[in-house]
Amino acid sequence: MNFETNEEIDGVRDSLIRVLSDHYTSSHRQALADSGTAYAEQAWKEMTGLGLTGLLVPQDFDGLGRDFTDLLPVFLELGRSLAPVPFMSSCVLGATALRRADNTELQKMLMPSLVAGTLQLSCSHTSASTIPSVSAQWHDGAWRLAGVQQHLPYAATADRLILAARVSGSASEQDGLYILAREAVGVRLRSHRLIDGTPAADVYLDDAEAIALCAPGSVQARTAIEAVAAAGIAAACAEMVGIMEAAFRLTVDYLKTRQQFGRLIGENQALRHRSADMLVALETARSLSIAAALAAGHGGSGTAESRADLHRAKFLVGRNARILCQAAIQLHGGIGMTEEYKVGHYLRRVHVLDHQFGNEAQHLQELAKLT
User: Fold this and answer.
1) Which of 217, 242, 270 is a domain's end point?
2) What are 323-333's pLDDT values in tens digits?
3) Alpha carbons 232 and 229: distance in angstroms, whole number
4) 3-state class of 231 per DSSP?
5) Which stretches in the chain have pLDDT values below 50?
6) Which of 116, 146, 180 marks a domain boundary?
7) DSSP-derived 3-state class of residue 29
8) Which pTM value belongs to this model?
9) 200 vs 85, 108, 224, 318, 364, CA distance in Å?
10) Is the dihedral of CA 49, 51, 56, 60 positive or negative?
11) 1 lies in some domain
């Protein structure tokens, strides 16, 4: 599947490449790994200056109001660089959740700040079919949340959290999305890092006051949850394709330069076949990620075909990404296992993305239901 971007998006992509190359290198990665909740703040500030924070925000709220396919080049570069920035959590998942809210006043208050980069959101990475681990209850004139949300990326530095929750004692159709301040009474965080180095936190909620983005159990609430999940699936697929491109190029360059027994190892026919298999996996994943981005434009609640495209893409892109990155490590040999070399970090990031927004079994089950 071929996909072409316009000149404006190509210009933004070129600027993003320069920003990431200047403000996120291997030395930056090591420095961040040694600190607690830090992320690539300077790169994030530069991305804000490029206007990337407003790509999905409607023009009525100072955003650019672009289509989800315009995010593809951004995530390709984020995947290649492995830069830890809260773009997906804040400007994709968070922005999508706010766009789907039926609270106009909340949108007017938060969306311009999101575009300006003065507001950072942390949104839960769940699938539409996942039962929320957080419960909600109407008490004393407000919604109160209780429970634990594990492994919430960038939660420790976010201004507000957006969580999926189920009304206490109700059926699954009473699920909804809720927003609350990170420093609200009843919110406690335990910070840690995921296996790829992404800063995250377990969020413990004890009757923390929150605002429902939509009436819990309403059609709009369910649509909002599906839209956030669809946006997350498409973003994860696009980032994995960027990772695959980088790992493939790194491996091919290595095969062209590494010598063993007086000859280039890339001249070995078996290794050429392995690299050809890697290229097939990459191009397959690329087409699937484009299909997922187009399906995400329908909010995840479009036709059965769109929903199938999302489930199929998440399952197959994740599988192909793991296969390619594992092959890249094997073809590098011992150096591929070292902490200093980038190829191992690509596989770690793929593992994290592959487990967000539903695992393989969940997406296969959803595909079975649709067929």
Assistant:
1) 217
2) 999 999 999 98
3) 5
4) helix
5) none
6) 116
7) helix
8) 0.93
9) 12, 28, 23, 21, 28
10) positive
11) no
Task: Assign residue 209 a region (left: φ > 0; alpha: ψ between -120 and 50; beta: otherwise).
Answer: beta
Q: What share of the chain is helix, strand, coil (3-state, %, to 5)?
A: 60, 15, 25
Distances in whole angstroms, Cα of residue 66 to Cα of each of 46, 54, 211: 20, 9, 27
pLDDT digits (tens, 9 = 90+) for 154-191: 999 999 999 999 997 665 557 899 999 999 999 999 99
- 132 residue type, one letter: P
* Cβ proximity of 77 and 47 under 8 Å: no
Q: Which domain holds residue 213?
A: 121-217
C-beta pairs of 296-299 under 8 Å, 24+ apart in sequence: 296/68, 296/230, 296/231, 296/233, 296/234, 297/67, 297/68, 297/69, 298/230, 299/100, 299/223, 299/226, 299/227, 299/230
Number of domains comprising the chain: 3
For tokens 């950072």, name the residue: 120
Backbone angles phi, psi at 159, to 5 degrees: -80, -40
CA–CA distance, 214 with 118 (Å, rounded to integer): 24
Q: Are 177 and 121 spatial neighbours (Cβ–Cβ below 8 Å)?
A: no
Nearest residue to 311 via CA among 58, 128, 105 = 128
- Residue 2 inside a domain? The answer is no
Same structural domain, 166 and 79:
no
271 three-class SS: helix
Beta strands 160-167 and 134-139 are parallel
**280 and 182 in one domain?**
no
Assign 3-class secondary structure to 58-121. Answer: CHHHCCCCCCHHHHHHHHHHHHHHCCCCCHHHHHHHHHHHHHCCCCHHHHHHHHHHHHHCCCCE
User: Do both 130 and 97 map to the same domain?
Assistant: no
Token pair listed for 182: 């990170």
